[in-house]
Design goal:
By secondary structure, the protein is an alpha+beta fold. It is built from 8 helices and 23 strands. Helix content is 25%, strand content 29%. 39% of the residues are buried.
């Protein structure tokens, strides 16, 4: 979750899910890419009231300039970041990026205006509503990447990063029935870190639409050999590359494909793999013939991620401040109707100073230069050896797994 959007992807068995087709601004794209679901719910997403009187968030964003009202750069429309300031998750003494001080009064003022427009009692009620709407939008995106594709989110951990992601992660996990959140040490700059750690990959594809049962293994192997030669020619170190072969298949009459791995090509083996993939993705198989659409080859050269040396030193407790945790932070919804019981004193930590093995009991707020993490009441946190924070609902954080 960054400034303008939230991006969701599923990582299964250590690999991010990939797709070969997507729409970007209405334009169909057919190329291998990480399968990402994006929604307009970022820290800078603007909250507004529609013609029916309903509170909405995004997709319009305040951007970096002028940014949220709390930035003090002239922004005059309420954003998710302003709501987090009013709720106490981001303090008035927080220096975003290590240098940007916040204008809490400006955040409260724009949310008070929003409250008047939405017929809500005050700025805090508006802030609750903004965060709830943003969380609902992100929850739908996570369900789209999991439940709608045959995966139970309760069987996964929620990995939260971006400047704003760790603030909302525990509430999202609770909404989805997930019990564990992982916040990497470089949470706010994890995308940049990922660029340093990423493998070098090269892809090649050949379209050969034909019935799978009629495919000649020798002809298919010859095409694969040509594709392998092509990707190795682009690789920086061909001898270090690992080759993976795959095929896009569909049932006769379908207009979409699923990609399945191919070791030694055999029509029967590929058909069996496709049936299994289709059942996993959609919950059923068909007795229709299978069509072979594309052959794919990927050459991968493993990257060398930078070492993470986390030690932590000094007193990590910075202060404490009052924050609002709807329904004691258990599920992100305010069900008790008593605003006063939602206000709690949260311990504020300087996250980089937390040593490996340190434990944190919610309510707590962990600050670092590029992101903020919220540990609600009823959640427990533990710092792993690599500096990652593992937050568990109502119990043990599961050691270093």
């Amino acid at each position: 979750m960054g400034g303008t959007s939230s991006d969701v992807s599923l990582v299964r068995d250590g690999q991010a899910e990939r797709t070969t087709e997507a729409d970007i601004d209405g334009i169909p794209i057919r190329t291998p890419m990480v399968d990402v679901t994006t929604v307009g719910a970022g820290g800078g997403s603007i909250a507004w009231v529609d013609s029916g009187g309903a509170l909405r968030v995004g997709p319009e964003s305040a951007g970096a300039e002028p940014g949220p009202a709390c930035y003090g750069h002239g922004g005059d429309r309420p954003t998710v970041t302003d709501a987090n300031v009013v709720l106490g998750y981001i303090g008035d003494d927080t220096a975003l990026g290590g240098e940007l001080t916040l204008d809490v009064d400006a955040a409260r003022a724009v949310l008070a205006d929003l409250a008047d427009e939405a017929d809500l009692p005050d700025a805090e009620a508006a802030a609750r509503g903004v965060v709830r709407v943003a969380n609902a939008t992100m929850t739908r995106a996570i369900r789209s990447a999991t439940v709608e594709r045959g995966h139970d989110p309760r069987e996964f951990d929620l990995v939260a990063f971006g400047g704003a992601g760790p603030m909302h992660a525990a509430a999202l996990a609770a909404d989805l029935g997930m019990d564990r959140v992982v916040v990497p040490a470089p949470a706010g700059v994890l995308s940049a870190y990922g660029l340093l750690a990423a493998d070098e990959t090269h892809d090649a594809v050949r379209t050969i639409t034909q019935p799978l049962a009629d495919s000649d293994p020798d002809e298919i192997d010859a095409i694969y050999d040509e594709l392998i030669e092509s990707v190795l020619a682009d690789a920086s170190e061909p001898d270090a590359a690992t080759i993976e072969r795959a095929a896009d298949c569909r049932y006769d009459g379908q207009s979409f494909e699923l990609t399945v791995p191919v070791d030694a090509f055999s029509p029967d083996a590929v058909a069996e793999a496709f049936d299994a993939a289709h059942e996993r993705a959609y919950g059923y198989t068909l007795s229709a013939p299978v069509e072979l659409v594309n052959l794919r080859v990927t050459a991968t050269i493993e990257g060398e991620p930078p070492d993470i040396d986390h030690t932590g030193a000094g007193d990590a407790v910075v202060s404490s401040r009052e924050a609002i945790f709807p329904d004691n932070g258990s599920n992100g919804d305010d069900t008790d109707g008593d605003d006063a019981t939602d206000r709690q004193s949260a311990t504020v930590y300087d996250r980089p100073k937390l040593a490996a093995g340190a434990t944190i009991a919610g309510p707590a707020i962990l600050e670092q230069a590029e992101s903020t993490t919220v540990v609600p009441p009823g959640w427990q946190g533990r710092i792993r050896g690599d500096g990652a924070l593992v937050i568990q609902r109502g119990g043990s954080t599961g050691g270093d797994q």
